[in-house]
Amino acid sequence: MIQGKPRVLDRADWATHPDLFWKGHVEGHTLGTGVTVLFYSTEEVGGGPKWHVHPYDEIFIIREGRALFTVGDERFECEKGQLVFGPANVPHKFVNLGPGRLETTDVHVSDRWIQTNLPDPEIEAG
Predict the structure, then answer these.
(1) Residue 123 DSSP code
(2) Pfam families from the xrefs (predicted)?
(3) 102 neighbors 42 (Cβ within 8 angstroms)
(4) What are phi and psi of 12, to 5 degrees?
(5) In 3D, which of 101, 98, 90, 91 has the Cα closest to residue 39?
(6) All residues at 6 or more sequence positions from 49 whose CB lies less than 8 Å from its CB, including other chains
């Protein structure tokens, strides 16, 4: 069995924003692993990823701030130090409740980031 090699990535290898330190991603296939990691950060209250779905499980680690998560038909508030499990094929989104910055580390159980954006039923019903 061939084992993967240890790797160290610098911020420049994954970051996508010059000022928000924890914003970017690394896909597992580039490292020879089955996990993709996204780093999300926003200071905008009400800001966050829009309604979408993945064909694999996702784990959200709330590292800073507070968020309102919608996973399927369930809504719940989360804060720094909590984890959220998002099952495969269940649409979800979250928004920054503020005050201040929201930072999450999102673990995608896939070697690639696969996301399908969907019409938001809350916006359509509004």
Answers:
(1) H
(2) Cupin_2
(3) yes
(4) -60, -20
(5) 101
(6) 40, 93, 94
